[in-house]
Amino acid sequence: MERTDRIAEEIKKVISEMIQNELKDPRVKGLISVTKVLITKDLKYCKIYISVLGADKNEVLEGIKSGAGYMRKELGNRIEIRILPELNFILDDSLEYGAHIDQVIKDINS
Predict the structure, then answer these.
(1) Domain limits at 33?
(2) Alpha-carbon 18 to chain mean position
């Protein structure tokens, strides 16, 4: 496993915990999970894919983005890396897309 993969996995764990337990923004509600974290080789940029169920996705995303500065600072306290990546949150629609494809296949078969 590469160094960037290990760091990405650690970031995924810490960010998930922060979103669930520490963000006080009222827009951050529903079932939110971090599905994937991609980090550049130079550790400067980090894309964090989130999946939202049971709430307005765009509203939740805005709430999470507003807490990005706090999360970046906390990340520096919890993970020992010299360069703190810039956090970029992105909605992950792959679960919905998979459910849609599944439904299309069921409709074709019946």
Answers:
(1) 3-109
(2) 11
What is the full per-residue pLDDT of the chain (110 aa) written as tens digits? 788 999 999 999 999 999 999 999 999 998 999 999 999 999 999 999 999 988 899 999 999 999 999 999 999 999 988 889 999 999 998 877 888 899 999 999 98
Give me the CATH number covering residue 10. Answer: 3.30.300.20
Take residue 38 and report the two structure tokens written for it: 């991609």
Contacts of 69 (CB under 8 A, 6+ apart): none
Residues 6+ apart with CB under 8 A from 25: 63, 64, 66, 67
Q: Give the number of domains in the chain.
A: 1
